[in-house]
Design brief:
Layout: E1 5-10, H1 16-19, E2 27-32, H2 34-42, E3 48-52, E4 64-73, E5 80-84, E6 93-97, H3 101-112, E7 122-125, H4 130-133, E8 138-143, E9 156-159, H5 160-168, E10 172-179, H6 185-198, H7 207-216, E11 218-221, H8 223-238, H9 263-270, H10 277-286, H11 289-303, E12 308-312, E13 314-317, H12 322-331, E14 336-339, H13 348-361, E15 366-368, H14 372-382, H15 386-396, H16 414-425, E16 430-436, H17 442-461, E17 467-474, H18 486-499, E18 505-508, H19 515-521, E19 528-531, H20 550-559, E20 563-567, E21 574-576
Parallel strand pairs: 1-2, 1-3, 6-7, 6-8, 12-19, 12-20, 13-14, 14-15, 16-17, 17-18
Antiparallel strand pairs: 3-10, 4-10, 4-11, 5-8, 5-9, 20-21
C-alpha cells in the first residue's frame, strides 16, 4: 500500500470547506497555522500544504500550485485587518502578526500605497499576539478567527481585502494548495474534489459562519483570482518584500480514457445480479441513457411484475399553518400530512407534539416529515436527548421518519446514521432521498447509493425496518456544471433501481420536472410517484412549481399504461383504482 500524502493545512474556519472532505484513505492531514504549514512543506515534512502565497517565493522554494481552489476575497474579507485603538493617521508603529506572511506583506504594500503611511515603522511579533500589542499608538495586523473576535477597545479596523479591491479592482488570494513538483496526480485531483464537495457544505454552517464563508471568502482560483495573485507578486517583488521567481501551476489532468462499457454489464444488472462499486461508477459514466433506463425497467418488472404505480394522497403543512391546512387536507381525502418543521427553536418539540395529536385525533391523518436533522435539532433546542425527543414524538402519534431532501454524503454522517437507527428501534419507516444539483459530482451520487445500500443492509440485518423507498429529487438549476437536468434525474432513478437491491421502491419525485417527466421515469425503474401534495404548491426548483391533485396524478399514471394505486406511508394499505375516471379526466 502506498504511503499517504502528507498534508499541512490551516485550522481556520475559512479553510474548513477545502479540508473537511479530504479523503482519509489518500491524505494524512495535520492542522497548523499558515506559517507552520509553509515551514513543514519547505522542510519536506509535508507533501502538500494550504500555505500563504508569500511562501511560494521563499528562497529555494520550488513548489507548484494546485488549480481549482484557494482562500481569497473579492472585497471585505472580515478576517485580515489592520486594527488599533486610535485612527491610522495617529499610529507610530505597526506590529505584524507572524501567523501569515502574505497578510503582513499585503499590509506593507497597502501602507505604502493607498493607505498613505509608507514611513510607518513595522515590527514582527509572535504568531497570534497582534491584537495584544495593538495598544495606544501601535497598530497591528490581525488575521484568521482572531480578527473576527476582537476586543471592543480596538475601534479602528481596516479590512485589507476591501482596500485591495478598491485599489486594484481584483480579488486577493491569501492561501493556495501548493506541493512538491512530483505530487501524484491523484493527490491534485483529490484536493480539487474535496473542495468541490465542501462548497455546498457552507450552507450547513451556523448563521454567523455561513455568512462569512459564503460572502467574505472567495474560493475559486479562476482567471480573475490569478490576475490578482500575479499583481500582488509583482508589487511585492518590486518593493523587495517577496523573493524572485514565477508562479507555477500543476498542469491539467490528462484526458481520462473513454469508459469501456461491455453490454454484459447492463445485461447482468437487468437480471438482478449484484452491482459492485466499479460497475456502478462505470454505468454512471458510460451507459447511454436509453440503455440504462431499459435495464432498470427490465429489473423493475422482474421485482414488481404488477402493472401498477403507487402514490400517496398527502399534503404539506407547517406548525404555523396547521389550523388552516389540516381541514383542507381532510376535505381532499388525504391519508397523510407531511410536517415541514424548519429551524428548530426551544418550543419546536412541544409544538410538534401538539400538532401530532391534533392531526391524529381531530383529522385522522398519518403524520411524517421528521428526519434526522429535524430530530437532532429539536432535541438540542429543547435540551433533551434525541431518544427522549423521539419517544415523545412517537407517543404523540408520529407515524413515519424521513425528512427533508438529502445531500450526497449524508449517509456517512454519524449523526444521520444514529438518528435513523433510533427511528428504526421505534419501528418507524419511511423513504430516504437523493437530491441532485447541490454541487455534487456523478461519482458522489454513486457513492451515496452504495453507502445507502450498505446502511440499509445493516439495518435489515439488525432487525430494524430500514427504508421503504429512495426518492430522487432534482434542483433543476439549469446550470450545466450542476448536471441536474431532467435527463440526469432519469439516469439517477435508473441507476438507483439497479444498485439498490435491498430497497423495495424507487420514487420519482416529480415536482421539479412535472408529471410528464414522471411518466418517463416509470419506464426507467421508478414504481412510485410519492406524495401528491394535495391542493398545495409542491416543492419545486426555483421559479417552477406544479399544482396537482389526485385526479391529475392518476390520469398521468393511466396514460402511461399503468393502474394507479393509492398507498399509505409504508405501503401496508393499497387501494387499486380500477374504476373509470370521473370529472375532468373522464373519457368522452
Amino acid at each position: 500500500m502506498n504511503p499517504k500524502i502528507r498534508v499541512a493545512c490551516v485550522g481556520y474556519t475559512n479553510a474548513w470547506p477545502l479540508t473537511r472532505h479530504l479523503d482519509p484513505e489518500l491524505f494524512a492531514v495535520e492542522a497548523c497555522v499558515p506559517s507552520v504549514a509553509a515551514r513543514r512543506l519547505g522542510q519536506g515534512e509535508a507533501d502538500v500544504g494550504l500555505v500563504p502565497v508569500a511562501s511560494l517565493f521563499d528562497r529555494g522554494a520550488s513548489w507548484r500550485v494546485a488549480p481549482g481552489w484557494c482562500i481569497g476575497s473579492d472585497g471585505d474579507v472580515d478576517s485580515v485587518l489592520l486594527v488599533g485603538e486610535g485612527p491610522l493617521e495617529e499610529w507610530d508603529e505597526v506590529v505584524l502578526d507572524g501567523e501569515s506572511r502574505t497578510s503582513v506583506i499585503l499590509a506593507q504594500i497597502l501602507l505604502r500605497g493607498p493607505l498613505g503611511r509608507p514611513e510607518l515603522p513595522v515590527r514582527a511579533v509572535d504568531a497570534g499576539t497582534g491584537a495584544f500589542h495593538a495598544q495606544g499608538r501601535v497598530g497591528a495586523v490581525v488575521i484568521g478567527d482572531a480578527a473576527r473576535n476582537l476586543p471592543a477597545r480596538l475601534t479602528t479596523r481596516v479590512d485589507l481585502g476591501r482596500v485591495w479591491k478598491q485599489w486594484t479592482g481584483l480579488p486577493f488570494v491569501f492561501a493556495v494548495w501548493a506541493g512538491r513538483p512530483d505530487l501524484p496526480r491523484e493527490a491534485i485531483d483529490g484536493l480539487r474534489a474535496a473542495g468541490a464537495r465542501g462548497m455546498p457544505d457552507r450552507a450547513l454552517a451556523p448563521a454567523a459562519e455561513r455568512d462569512y464563508l459564503t460572502r467574505a471568502i472567495r474560493y475559486e482560483l479562476d482567471d480573475r483570482a490569478l490576475m490578482g495573485l500575479r499583481r500582488f507578486v509583482a508589487l511585492g517583488q518590486a518593493a523587495g518584500l517577496l523573493g524572485p521567481g514565477d508562479l507555477s501551476l500543476y498542469g491539467p489532468s490528462p484526458l481520462a480514457p473513454k469508459a469501456v462499457l461491455p453490454a454484459e454489464l447492463l445485461t447482468r444488472a437487468a437480471r438482478g445480479e449484484p452491482i459492485n462499486a466499479e460497475t456502478a461508477h462505470a454505468l454512471s459514466v458510460g451507459a447511454p441513457t436509453g440503455e440504462l433506463a431499459a435495464a432498470a425497467d427490465e429489473l423493475r418488472w422482474l421485482r414488481a411484475p404488477a402493472r401498477e404505480v403507487t402514490w400517496l394522497p398527502a399534503g404539506n403543512l407547517t406548525l404555523d399553518n396547521l389550523a388552516e391546512r389540516a381541514p383542507a387536507l381532510t376535505a381532499k381525502k388525504a391519508l397523510a400530512a407531511i410536517l415541514q418543521l424548519g429551524v428548530a427553536e426551544a418550543d419546536t418539540l412541544a409544538r410538534t407534539e401538539a400538532a401530532l395529536r391534533t392531526l391524529k385525533e381531530q383529522h385522522g391523518l398519518s403524520v411524517t416529515g421528521v428526519g434526522p436533522d429535524d430530530l437532532h435539532g429539536m432535541a438540542l433546542a429543547a435540551a433533551v436527548s434525541p431518544e427522549v425527543a423521539l419517544e415523545r414524538l412517537v407517543s404523540a402519534g408520529l407515524d413515519g421518519f424521513g425528512g427533508p431532501p438529502t445531500r450526497t454524503g449524508a449517509v456517512q454522517r454519524p449523526t444521520w446514521q444514529a438518528m435513523h437507527r433510533l427511528a428504526g428501534r421505534h419501528g418507524l419507516r419511511g423513504p430516504t432521498t437523493l437530491t441532485l444539483g447541490l454541487g455534487e459530482s456523478r461519482a458522489d451520487r454513486v457513492e451515496h447509493l452504495l453507502a445507502l445500500r450498505s446502511f440499509q443492509a445493516s439495518e435489515l440485518h439488525a432487525g430494524r425496518p430500514g427504508f421503504t423507498a429512495l426518492s430522487v429529487w432534482t434542483a433543476l438549476s439549469g446550470e450545466p456544471d450542476r448536471d441536474d437536468s431532467a435527463q440526469a434525474w432519469l439516469r439517477t432513478i435508473a441507476l438507483a433501481r439497479l444498485v439498490l437491491d435491498n430497497v423495495a421502491h424507487i420514487t420519482a419525485w416529480w415536482p421539479s420536472v412535472g408529471l410528464g417527466a414522471a411518466q418517463a421515469a416509470l419506464f426507467a425503474g421508478a414504481d412510485d410517484l410519492g406524495p401528491a401534495l394535495l391542493d398545495d404548491t409542491a416543492l419545486a426548483a426555483p421559479g417552477r412549481s406544479f399544482l396537482t391533485d389526485g385526479e391529475e396524478v392518476e390520469h398521468h399514471i393511466r396514460v402511461a399504461g399503468f393502474t394507479p394505486v393509492r398507498r399509505d406511508l409504508d405501503w401496508t394499505t393499497l387501494v387499486r383504482v380500477t374504476a373509470a375516471p370521473e370529472g375532468r379526466y373522464a373519457r368522452a
